[in-house]
Amino acid sequence: MVTVKTLKPYYIKVDARAIRVILAYKHFSVLINRELYQFVPLEAKEIRINRKTRKIENIGARFAFQKDKDIIYIAMTKLISLPDFLLQLYAIVESYFARDQRKVRQSEVEDRDTSLIIKHLERENIKRLIDHSLDEKDEEAFYKLVKRIQK
Fold first, then answer.
1. Phi, psi (degrees; rounded to nearest 5) at 37
2. What's CA 125's distance to the chain center, in Å?
3. Cys-Cys with 76: which of 2, 44, 48, 61 at CB 3.0–4.6 Å?
4. What Cα–Cα distance (Å) separates residue 101 from each residue in 3, 43, 46, 95, 105?
5. Would you place residue 101 in the very low, low, confident or very high pLDDT band (cuts 50, 70, 90)?
6. What residue segments make up the domains of the chain, in order of their start?
7. With pLDDT > 90 as the criterion, what percentage of the chain qualifies?
8. Which residues are CB-neighbours of 123 under 8 A, at least 6 positions away?
9. pTM beyond cutoff 0.70
């Protein structure tokens, strides 16, 4: 039976594509058959998560854990099957996803604002064209423009 005891990143690296949770000696521990094993950086040293899909990318990684002289390797596929691992990992990286969500929401607001500004400018332009058609006594253009502004 494997249970994740602690998962504390040494540091976190973030770029546009991924969140990398970098692990260091004794920052990650597991209970295996009620024995505490500490992470040792012999093979995999990071957990890489795609910011867009929110999925772990380095699924083939193997992590080494040591208790005294005994070393056990646990594959990422095994770790992601452990709810406590996923909960702790999510707690670590969720703020980075929240930042992404804020950026998306801000972008949506900006797009909506831009759309409203464009509609307003188009309406003002039609009003100017109506004024121009009145000045030119162009009755046909006047009626076409009035129909457009009423939509």
1. -115, 135
2. 40
3. 61
4. 31, 33, 24, 10, 6
5. low
6. 2-96, 106-149
7. 38
8. 149
9. no
